[in-house]
Amino acid sequence: MADILAPVTDEKARSFSIAEQDDRKLVRRLTFSYVAALTLIAVLSALVHLLLDNIITQQSSSGSVIKVAQRQITQTQRVTKAALDWTMGGRPAARQELADAVKLMAASNEVLTGRSASYGFQVELSSAMHGIFFESPVALDNEVKRFVYHAEALLDTGNDALNRAIHLQVMREAASGDLLHGLDRAVSQFELEASERVESLRDAQKVVLVILLLTLAAEAFFIFRPLVNSVQLYAQRLLELATRDALTGLHNRRHFFELGQREFDRSRRASKPCALLLFDIDHFKAVNDTYGHATGDDVIRGIAEIACDMTRRTDIAARVGGEEFVILLPDTGLEAAALVGEKLRRAIEAAPYGTRSLHATVSIGIAEAEAADVNLSDTLARADIALYQAKREGRNRLVQAADSPAV
């Protein structure tokens, strides 16, 4: 069978109509899915941005908290040193240094315990941190307050050497004992929790990124792939509309000349023969006038089917007029083309057409491309002359261009 579409029947036309309706539904569904996917991608992208921003914020906030907690250790040593300098040397500057350091240490403790946000951030204590600050055995909040109390009391002792000694001793023991260990533990816990919070946010960011990538993959598989397939189907249908005869499915006149001229040129380059069969239905107007155009269409479709069945894959069959057909036979000389034409004529004559089982005949003109032919139209013109010679001789016959009289 020739490499062309099967003739288009009414049933196929209805199938095309149903397919078009299904396509419209598919397009609407794909459009909705595409918009939904884009919305989801936008939401996920925003979520990734928010998570990243939150990670940066958490790291900054945690860094500030850890910095204050670490500074408490330094402040403990600073308060102790200032206290020693003041009690031993009585320097006025040492007393002011002690007062400033104690004030800063007390304020930092209020921030670290979540009772104050004076440093621009609010600490929310976890259960572990709450235990370190307010529960035994550490009770760091009490230890800091006790240390601050003795430092402030030291400032108020005046010249009482005994009280100074007592307060200073308590401060020195705390700075090298429970207070220092408690502050170290608080710093370690703050660092641990900060790391866990950031890691948790990073895990969430990874999950969102995976969902985003899966969404993109699903969009490509379930939306873009069907969309591309639909575009390809539409392109194929447009190509069929542009190149095929709607009634028979054969090549139309314009496409026949495109393909035929290409084959004509190839035959010339390869020095191969190339022949044409040009035929039309005898008394076709009478069929339409007597039985109606629907029956006439049945006859045209039936003849097109026979032409398809009797041609090779390399042959080019087309409907070039209302009841006129042409078949280009590459690598075929005039005698071989005459055999094909006669076989075709007999098959068309013998076949019944339509529900009325009508019979029809065709007249055929045959021409082989000659050296004098400039293009395919020249060969077709000689086949047309032969066709009309066949009609003048009584129809239902085949005439070769070489046998037709010169015009």
Can you tell me about this structure?
With 407 residues, this protein is of the alpha+beta class. It folds into 2 domains: 1-243, Four Helix Bundle (Hemerythrin (Met), subunit A); 253-403, Reverse transcriptase/Diguanylate cyclase domain (Alpha-Beta Plaits, 2-Layer Sandwich). The protein contains 11 helices and 5 strands. The chain has helices spanning 10-89, 92-112, 127-134, 140-155, 161-176, 178-243, 253-270, 284-291, 293-309, 334-350, 376-392; strands at 274-281, 316-319, 324-330, 362-368, 398-400. A 5-stranded mixed beta sheet has the order 2-3-1-4-5, with helices on both faces. The protein is rod-shaped and about 150 Å long. The protein starts with 9 loop residues before the first helix and ends in a 7-residue tail after the last strand. Residues 1-13 have low confidence and may be disordered. Residues 272-403 form the GGDEF domain. It comes from Lacibacterium aquatile.
Looking at the structure, the CATH topology of the largest domain is Four Helix Bundle (Hemerythrin (Met), subunit A)
Which band does the percent of strand residues land in?
5-15%
Radius of gyration: 49 Å
User: Which regions contain 5 or more consecutive residues with pLDDT less than 50?
Assistant: 1-13
The helix content, as a percent range, equals 55-70%
CATH class bucket of the largest domain:
Mainly Alpha
What order do the SSEs take from the amino end to the carboxyl end, as H and E?
Answer: HHHHHHHEHHEEHEHE
